[in-house]
Amino acid sequence: MTDLTRRQALLLTLASGLPLVAGASRAQAQSAAQKVTVALDWTVNTNHIGLFVARDKGFYSEAGLEVDILPYSDTGAGTLVANRVADFGINGTISLFTQKTAGADLKGVYAVVQSETGRLVFNAARSEIKSPRNLDGLTYGGFGSAWENALIGTIIRHDGGMGNFETVTLGTSAYEALANGSVDFTLEVSTWEGVEAELKGVKQRSFVYADYGVPDEHTTLISSSEAYLQANPKPAAAFVQATRRGYQFAVDDPDAAAALLIAANKDTLTNPALIEASLKALIDGHYLRGNNGAIGTMDPAKMHAIGDYLLAADVLRDADGEALTQRPDFAEYFSNSTLG
């Protein structure tokens, strides 16, 4: 649920360094490097840590790349990639499926997280909410997507409820509304908003989607376009593999990685405790590296399962906005081939 629940604002100033090569000046070395652009799904947070590590530890430059991490804008990363404004972009699995089904040129190439980080949350003091069926008739503070309604309805009905609830579209103000009781529940990312709430002493309880009939998903991916991947196979593989080195470093040395991310974004990441606690949650929860040791690999079974779920829930629409009548070939939506 990253696309729905990670809401802040930020502009970044970015630079890339490349090593000198024998007999060449730094300027010559940089001019020889392959330029690559990557767009963020939202403002800088721990989901992006591998990109900054790979850039600032020199993993990209060692791979012959000069990588620019583009400032977040109101235009989604998937749209920027599909329109060749960016070569790669961080986006949610749900947005990948919905945009590609509608005709966007997108393909998932890297799983930032290995399982769902989203949660349905409510104030811990709501003792009458014992299980999802108790959400029937309550008010949800939401973000305006068809996916949310399908998700929540599935969770409630799986627990024996009717799946009837009121929705108020609030965007990021949903978290304030939840805290003051204006809404009864919302969705958040456990490894960011959930961690932040805990640091603030806000007591919450939550339901895990996969416990109530919703397929587990990778939540956050890095995607590219078929056009870019076909035209630039070597730089594409170099970027993905160097990026995985960045996330591997973050898992192996979280203190150094957190310090690097904060140093690269001093003006905006002003709460080191949040960064450190969030990264700990990503590592301890086996999100950045799965229980099976996977880093970056997309599980085909998960990808097909979430695609089938979205199709059955009528979330997937074609370019004309019409519900699909045939199952797409979801194998075309992603590939692990650039991981090496």
TrEMBL record:
Limits of the SsuA/THI5-like domain: 45-257
Pathway field: Cofactor biosynthesis; thiamine diphosphate biosynthesis
InterPro entries: NMT1/THI5, SsuA/THI5, TAT_signal
GO molecular function: metal ion binding; transferase activity
Residues annotated as signal peptide: 1-29
Catalytic reactions of this protein: N(6)-(pyridoxal phosphate)-L-lysyl-[4-amino-5-hydroxymethyl-2-methylpyrimidine phosphate synthase] + L-histidyl-[4-amino-5-hydroxymethyl-2-methylpyrimidine phosphate synthase] + 2 Fe(3+) + 4 H2O = L-lysyl-[4-amino-5-hydroxymethyl-2-methylpyrimidine phosphate synthase] + (2S)-2-amino-5-hydroxy-4-oxopentanoyl-[4-amino-5-hydroxymethyl-2-methylpyrimidine phosphate synthase] + 4-amino-2-methyl-5-(phosphooxymethyl)pyrimidine + 3-oxopropanoate + 2 Fe(2+) + 2 H(+)
Keyword terms, alphabetized: Iron, Metal-binding, Pyridoxal phosphate, Signal, Thiamine biosynthesis, Transferase
Keyword Iron among record annotations: yes
Keyword Glycoprotein: no
GO BP, one annotated term: thiamine biosynthetic process
Record SUPFAM superfamilies: Periplasmic binding protein-like II (SSF53850)
Family, as annotated: Belongs to the NMT1/THI5 family.
Subunit structure: Homodimer.
PANTHER family: 4-AMINO-5-HYDROXYMETHYL-2-METHYLPYRIMIDINE PHOSPHATE SYNTHASE THI11-RELATED (PTHR31528)
Functional note: Responsible for the formation of the pyrimidine heterocycle in the thiamine biosynthesis pathway. Catalyzes the formation of hydroxymethylpyrimidine phosphate (HMP-P) from histidine and pyridoxal phosphate (PLP). The protein uses PLP and the active site histidine to form HMP-P, generating an inactive enzyme. The enzyme can only undergo a single turnover, which suggests it is a suicide enzyme.
Name of the protein in question: Thiamine pyrimidine synthase
